[in-house]
Write a structure and sequence with these properties.
With about 280 residues, the chain is mainly alpha-helical. The protein has one domain. The chain contains twelve helices and no strands. It is elongated, with a radius of gyration of 20 Å.
Length: about 280
Amino acid sequence: MSGDRTTFAHTVNDISVVARRNVIKITRVPEVLVFVLISPIMFVLLFAYVFGNSIDVEELGYREGYREFLIAGIFAQTVAFGATFTGAGIAEDMQKGIMDRFRSLPMSRAAVLAGRTISDVIYNVLSLAIMSATGLLVGWRIRSSVFEALGGFLLLLVFAYALSWVMAYVALNVPSVEVINNASFIVIFPLTFIANTFVPSDDLPGPLRVFAEWNPVSSVTQASRELFGNIPADVPEPTAWPLQNPVIYTLMWAAAIVAIFAPLSVHRYARKAKG
């Protein structure tokens, strides 16, 4: 059995090799590229033109209409669902025996998972770029500075990266790609809808409103709206602390998720290697 390469330089090199392998897969598997590029367009158009006509946010101060309110929520939902790429990719590699090949190589145990999560940041960058272009076409505008807008995109990517470690851990504990897809849908779907993504959290009934206010998806959505300058000056300030401090709250969640699930995932991967 080969030993782990534990030096920092070797680990970084291993991570880059695994990440590059997963990025190259985008061009070699057309259906993956289609999902990355087409789904964000579909979500923006669906919510902007179908649901947007039924949801009135002008009374809350959004004089530019629903699209100004919507796009940050679409961003948050898409990067959250984008984390399933990590889980599905790991589950698929396990089914095909690729993980067994990785385990037989003299490489860092953490590199396989870190390379996977880092490569999926590229997926989210592509999705955000496509959604931004589509949003601009349907009337959305960035009304803040360049640096604030870049901060909004970076915060979304940080949050997505954290969620990818959750999906990595789940994938290491399920038997197939189908299970990880179903499990992620069951968890992420309510998280992204019981939030302020598509409707104001004030419109939700009691317990759901409290959940939405403390939901990290709501905070990353609120932070994105603020950083993109999409919250008009006359919109009432939120009463819940997470939405009053959305950037800090989102970063706290991201740091906690990575601190918990990255070591758990690496430990689980190492145990499977020994098994």
